[in-house]
Backbone:
């Protein structure tokens, strides 16, 4: 009893600290100095990430229900080359091999997500619990722990049960709050004795904007200027509810943490001496990360969002704002529902002021009154949107520190892609990207930002949503042409291993040798990969040709025997 109240008091204190007032971010201070040699604090956690739909495959196996992604990808024209995640990396079957890869890299943690319809096929807890799905995640968690790898588990990485979309309209409907809470509660009940880090939502910006505003992602709806705000409103409520459920029912027993993973790219004012550009950059960040982080840390939407969307709704002749409103009770319920902040970060933009006259086509994008620009000199090896801008990472981390009272941060995603056709495992650009981004994170820690762990995105090449398999983010290359989906290490595996074993960048001489050493190993992997189609053919010979020939032989012998016997009779 006493223990419980001490724990509660401690928690209240942590909350007060977590939601303490924000400081001002100094926009003018942008120090892009040279490389910093040094190491991370002891106990810093190194990991890699994945998500259920992107890697598991087995989309209709062992009682799994359909998710909105299963349904979306099977509609023609939604995904590049009409790719699907039906089998993807076959992670459902190959997780033991994958844990061995993690073990070899000496990862401290692995971030993965639980597929909601794999354990609740209709989405509803009171309808049917799929024990085979539960067993899969139990096996995965147990094997990770046996290998001393801490699981960081995301509850929602975009794969809503299709039934909930069809019956209720998915995140447009407030009933998702309770259904998601039931699902989360089941996960705490079944896995929480072993899982201590929970992420409620992955990148809610994407769920809301790409799912309900632009329609590029499942469920593919285009409810311009409203859909994203409504979805986000329900997601924030659902996050808060799940945090309270954990806090009330599980925290004292299980002693874990519940956070959310927000993706945020950095927005740098085009002209740092121009106040309008600074304000536009701030709006970019508030409409991106602040949309979710400000309610969670401070209890309500950023003032700038309320002002802009409210004003534009008025100009449209609407009586109320398109941005929904939290009641006073909801505000205090939502405020402080964060034990740690997960951050996904990949790239940056330059931002300048741009007016969008209201009434034309109102949308989330035009509500912000800004334009995004890029520097053509920024390297962009893979995805069209992903430019390597390492200094933006440190800026973002410092921004988070000042805005949200220096919360505990786990980097839940950071990485770079290459195009499908690239079969070169000597991924020099990725080593450079990791080196520079991780170094900027180290500088941010020296600035006083409270970063506790880093998750490279991603462990394996996988299904990159509407881009299908055309973009590869993996440390490991997956040969999707081969039905066994073999994994091959890219050079960056070796490089990341060195960062992990040195816990940072010990000194110039050593760090400079890492790339050379990594490149030495990848040429042999390149040869193996080149031989893969041959191996594939050989497998085909053993699996198809030999059994067919044998069956034919048996048949022929039988016929021959029949003739022989007939002749005798
Ligand atoms: C963020 C998403 O969470 C992840 O699923 C995706 O693969 C990466 N961005 C790269 O686009």
Residues:
């Amino acid at each position: 009893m006493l223990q419980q109240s001490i724990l509660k008091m401690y928690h209240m204190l942590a909350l007060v600290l977590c939601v303490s007032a924000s400081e001002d971010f100094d926009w003018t201070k942008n120090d892009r100095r040279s490389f910093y040699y040094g190491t991370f604090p002891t106990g810093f956690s190194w990991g890699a990430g994945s998500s259920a739909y992107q890697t598991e495959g087995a989309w209709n196996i062992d009682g799994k229900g359909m998710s909105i992604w299963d349904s979306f990808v099977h509609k023609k024209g939604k995904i590049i080359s009409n790719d699907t995640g039906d089998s993807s990396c076959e992670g459902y079957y190959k997780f033991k091999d994958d844990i061995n890869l993690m073990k070899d890299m000496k990862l401290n943690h692995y971030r993965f997500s639980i597929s909601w319809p794999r354990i609740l096929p209709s989405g509803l807890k009171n309808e049917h619990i799929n024990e085979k799905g539960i067993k899969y995640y139990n096996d995965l968690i147990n094997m990770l722990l046996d290998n001393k790898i801490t699981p960081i588990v995301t509850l929602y990485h975009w794969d809503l049960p299709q039934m909930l979309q069809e019956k209720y309209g998915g995140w447009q409907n407030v009933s998702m709050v309770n259904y998601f809470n039931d699902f989360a509660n089941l996960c705490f009940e079944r896995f929480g004795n072993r899982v201590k880090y929970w992420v409620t939502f992955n990148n809610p910006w994407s769920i809301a904007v790409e799912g309900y505003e632009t329609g590029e992602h499942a469920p593919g709806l285009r409810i311009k200027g409203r859909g994203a705000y409504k979805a986000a409103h329900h997601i924030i409520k659902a996050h808060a509810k799940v945090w309270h459920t954990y806090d009330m029912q599980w925290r004292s027993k299980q002693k874990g943490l519940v956070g959310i993973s927000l993706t945020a790219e950095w927005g740098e004012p085009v002209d740092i001496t121009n106040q309008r550009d600074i304000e536009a950059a701030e709006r970019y960040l508030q409409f991106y990360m602040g949309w979710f982080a400000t309610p969670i840390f401070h209890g309500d939407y950023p003032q700038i969002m309320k002002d802009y969307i409210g004003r534009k709704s008025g100009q449209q002749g609407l009586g109320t704002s398109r941005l929904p409103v939290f009641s006073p009770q909801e505000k205090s319920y939502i405020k402080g529902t964060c034990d740690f902040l997960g951050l996904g970060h990949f790239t940056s933009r330059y931002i300048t002021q741009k007016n969008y006259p209201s009434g034309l086509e109102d949308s989330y994008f035009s509500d912000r009154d800004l334009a995004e620009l890029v520097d053509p000199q920024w390297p962009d090896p893979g995805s069209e949107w992903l430019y390597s801008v390492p200094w933006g990472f440190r800026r973002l981390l410092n921004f988070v520190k000042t805005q949200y009272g220096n919360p505990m941060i786990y980097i839940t995603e950071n990485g770079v892609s290459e195009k499908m056709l690239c079969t070169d495992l000597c991924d020099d650009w990725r080593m450079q990207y990791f080196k520079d981004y991780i170094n900027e994170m180290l500088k941010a820690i020296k600035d006083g930002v409270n970063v506790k762990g880093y998750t490279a995105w991603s462990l394996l090449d996988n299904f990159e949503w509407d881009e299908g398999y055309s973009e590869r983010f993996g440390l490991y290359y997956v040969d999707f042409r081969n039905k066994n989906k073999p994994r091959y290490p890219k050079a960056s595996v070796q490089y990341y291993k060195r960062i992990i074993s040195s816990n940072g960048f010990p000194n110039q001489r050593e760090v400079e040798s890492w790339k050379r050493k990594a490149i030495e190993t990848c040429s042999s992997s390149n040869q193996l990969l080149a031989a893969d189609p041959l191996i594939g053919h050989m497998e085909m010979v053993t699996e198809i040709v030999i059994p067919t020939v044998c069956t034919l032989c048996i048949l022929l012998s039988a016929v021959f025997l029949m003739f022989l016997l007939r002749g005798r009779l």
About this structure: The chain is about 50% helix and 15% strand. Residues 532-568 form the longest helix (37 residues). Residues 9-21 have pLDDT under 50 and may be disordered. Residues 267 and 349 are 5 Å apart (CA to CA).
